[in-house]
Structures are given as C-alpha cells and as structure tokens.
C-alpha cells in the first residue's frame, strides 16, 4: 500500500475503492478519481490491473503513476493481503471503472485471484455498494448471464452508455455525466442539475371553433399534453 498523504484523517472518512481493469474507457477512471478528490471526507483507494495499465497507456498516453497521483492510497493488484481485501476494513463503496468481462467473470464466481476481484467479493459479502462500469459490445449470452449473476449478488451493473438527452457537446461532457451518475448510484451524490423533464410545448394550439349543431350534454375528455414535465425526479 502506498499512501499519497493527501487523504483525510479521522473516523468520518469515507473510503472509496476504485479498480481499473483492461476494458476500453480509461478516461472514466481518470474522471472518477478527479471527482472523488473534490468530495470532502473521501479517501480514494486505487487498484489498477496489468491490462488496465496497458489500456491507460494506449488510450490516454498515461503511465500508471500519473493515475496513482490522483488517488489517496494506491494498492498493487497482486497484493491480496491489502487492507481492502478484508471485510473488517471499513469501505463505503467500490467502483470497477471500467470493468472488463474477465473481471466481471471473476467477481460473479468469487474467483478472488487478484486484489480487484477479492476486494469486490468482500464488498458484496459485506453488503456494500459495488458498481461495475462494464464495457463490451455486442454481448453474448454468457456475458448476460454473468451480469445477471453479479446483479443477483448485489452488484450494480452500470455500462457507460451516453445520455444523449442531456445534449452533450463533447466527449468530456459524456464522460463527466456518466461518472457522476455512477457515483450518485453508490451514495456519493455529485449531480448538480438533475433532469427536470422535457420543456412543455411553447404555446397550445388555437382552440377549434365549436361545431355547429346541438351542444353535447357531457364534456369531451381534455386533450393530453404533447410534452411532459417531471418537476422533482431525476431521469434514468
Ligand atoms: C486496447 C484494449 C481494449 C480492450 N477493451 C476491452 C473491452 O472494452 N472490454 C473487455 O471486456 N475487454 C477489453 N479488452 C481485453 C481485456 O483487457 C482483457 O480481457 C484482459 O485480460 C482483462 O484483464 P483485467 O480484467 O484483469 O484487466 C481490451 C484490451 C485492450 C488491449
């Protein structure tokens, strides 16, 4: 374990494990660590798989040490004796960002051969939030079955699917919103502008003139509005 020394001290600290595996999407890992740094009272623990390091190099041109500098505490993926490998070590949540199919498979079958799958297994057995930002496409039936198994065990399956209804204008927009929704889902709320629904139609169409002839005795049903507004709830 390597401690960067910048993490908060004291009993109110919320430890968050961020595991980075070899699926495409290293940029989601970087953004997750950047946002966690801004959250008060959070201590981030980072584990990067060998393939995660290779993908980081390929996609961002980053060395693992550059990602490590964003975390409060760094663990080696082979260190199955690390603190986060034990359920007695208090952890608020764990995110696997991005999550490969291989690591999903290990988690779904409790195959704790490295620190990532072991820490994830511990997170599940302790009933703590575990989010898998799984990235693969297309998905065969075996992938879907593994996802079902992991979900039955309590994992949150959260593929990084862009929310186009937020009208993103850049990849950074897409990445930022995806990461914030993932953090929200494990109890680390950061979304500041929740979706309030589509805007209502600007002006109702002019009323049709009344039909000629006798006035009906029962009022016709009110027309349903073309748009809708959800004033309080967030949209998934
Ligand atoms: C550039 C690159 C992109 C990859 N993208 C994916 C992916 O999107 N999803 C996936 O499941 N595996 C992907 N892989 C394959 C995994 O890295 C590979 O299965 C690896 O063994 C996963 O190990 P890990 O889970 O320990 O990181 C990719 C590999 C490379 C080199």
How would you describe this structure in keywords?
seven-stranded mixed beta sheet; disordered C terminus; Rossmann fold; binds flavin mononucleotide; alpha/beta; 236 residues
Question: If you average the pLDDT, what whole number results?
Answer: 87
Sum up the overall morphology in one term.
elongated
CATH H-level name... which superfamily?
Flavin prenyltransferase-like
Beta-strand share of residues? 5-15%
Class inferred from helices and paired strands:
alpha/beta
The CATH C-level name is Alpha Beta
Order of helices and strands: EEHEHHEEHHEHEH
CATH architecture designation: 3-Layer(aba) Sandwich
Which ligands, by name, code or SMILES, are bound? Answer: flavin mononucleotide
**Percent in helix:** 25-40%
How is the largest sheet built, in terms of strand order?
A: 1-4-3-2-5-6-7
Radius of gyration: 23 Å
CATH topology descriptor: Rossmann fold
The tally of domains stands at 1
Distance between the termini: 37 Å
Low-confidence segments: 216-236
Tell me the number of helical segments per DSSP (H or I, 4 or more residues long). Answer: 7
Number of strand elements: 7
Largest sheet: 7 strands, mixed
Structural account:
The protein has 236 residues and is of the alpha/beta class. 32% of the residues lie in helices and 14% in strands. It has one domain: Flavin prenyltransferase-like (Rossmann fold, 3-Layer(aba) Sandwich). The protein has seven helices and seven strands, in the order E-E-H-E-H-H-E-E-H-H-E-H-E-H. It has a seven-stranded mixed beta sheet, with helices on both faces. Strand 2, helix 1 and strand 3 form a beta-alpha-beta unit. Helix 4 crosses helix 5 and helix 4 crosses helix 6. The two termini are 37 Å apart. The site of flavin mononucleotide has 16 residues, from helix 2 and helix 4.
